[in-house]
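Practice problem 4.
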């Protein structure tokens, strides 16, 4: 069997009613003749939308096919034991040209019971935000089910939701159960469990071209919502140049920010996991035995677990990556 190497995948572009042009203008991706692109799925194991390798001798193979063949060499032994051939994370860019609906995701337990699927815990890294752009994370006051339902019924839900003005570099961790919505004028990188289970709570009474409102999942959402109130929902973090700085760590993924302006030698032997690099600033070169790949802003690359030593070299002054592993 040939050795593995850092893998790039062909993005899967999603036409969304709320999408815009920033996947092209901010991230340099050509989404062809879609009128608007809401999402670019960078690495996906979601059935029906499984990523296909675009570089090297494995080009044309799907992520699932690679896991079937390489197993722990690709994803790490502990990851393979836990998830088998299902890739555990979905990596995407989202361009909200309009407000996204207010929604919530169930946790593993509820999702397994209802949908035979994993729950969805996720995080957002804000890549770009227009002046004054806001997103919703959680509630802005202590709340219970009864009050929530009353506010929902009276179309006063927005009064109790916590909205935050954002700028590039902001991070929000969204555990399953937290009510959330991306507001218009924001581009995020999203790291999430492999799951497509979403309960829509509120959609601003918008109507489609035929005058119909989108379905809401009021009852389903009720059991999924975590009503806990927090003083702050934004993730505070600090970075150190030329070092991986931890930003989010949960049962499903760890995300670091890696800012560097000099060549770095990386060794991931002890992780027993694949590593994903999402480039959010600059351009760099990754070199591993027998393979070299250039990666620029808006591109994502997967380092197989067996490629445990490699070098990252900046090609622009400074490079910023989101570094993700299980």
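Answer key:
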């Amino acid at each position: 069997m040939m050795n593995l190497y850092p893998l790039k995948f062909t993005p899967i572009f999603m036409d969304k009613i709320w999408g815009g042009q920033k996947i092209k203008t901010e991230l340099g991706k050509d989404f062809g003749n879609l009128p608007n692109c809401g999402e670019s799925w960078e690495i996906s194991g979601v059935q029906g939308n499984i990523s296909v390798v675009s570089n090297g001798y494995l080009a044309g193979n799907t992520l699932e096919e690679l896991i079937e063949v390489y197993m722990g060499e690709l994803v790490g032994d502990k990851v393979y034991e836990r998830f088998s051939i299902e890739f555990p994370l979905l990596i995407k860019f989202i361009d909200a040209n309009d407000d996204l609906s207010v929604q919530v995701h169930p946790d593993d337990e509820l999702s397994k019971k209802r949908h035979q699927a994993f729950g969805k815990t996720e995080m957002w890294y804000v890549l770009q935000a227009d002046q004054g752009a806001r997103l919703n994370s959680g509630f802005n006051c202590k709340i219970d089910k009864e009050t929530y339902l009353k506010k929902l019924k009276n179309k006063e839900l927005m009064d109790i939701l916590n909205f935050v003005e954002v700028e590039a570099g902001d991070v929000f961790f969204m555990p399953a159960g937290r009510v959330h919505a991306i507001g218009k004028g924001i581009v995020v990188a999203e790291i999430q469990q492999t799951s497509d289970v979403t309960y829509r709570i509120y959609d601003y009474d918008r109507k489609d071209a035929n005058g119909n409102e989108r379905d809401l999942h009021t009852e389903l959402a009720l059991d999924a919502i975590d009503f806990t109130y927090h003083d702050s929902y934004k993730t505070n973090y600090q970075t150190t140049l030329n070092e991986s700085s931890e930003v989010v760590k949960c049962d499903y993924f760890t995300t670091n920010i890696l800012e560097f302006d000099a060549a770095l030698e990386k060794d991931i032997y002890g992780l027993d996991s694949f590593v994903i690099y999402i480039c959010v600033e600059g351009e760099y070169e990754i070199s591993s035995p027998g393979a070299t790949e250039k990666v620029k802003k808006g591109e994502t690359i997967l380092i197989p677990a067996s490629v445990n030593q490699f070098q990252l070299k900046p090609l622009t002054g400074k490079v910023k990556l989101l570094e993700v592993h299980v």
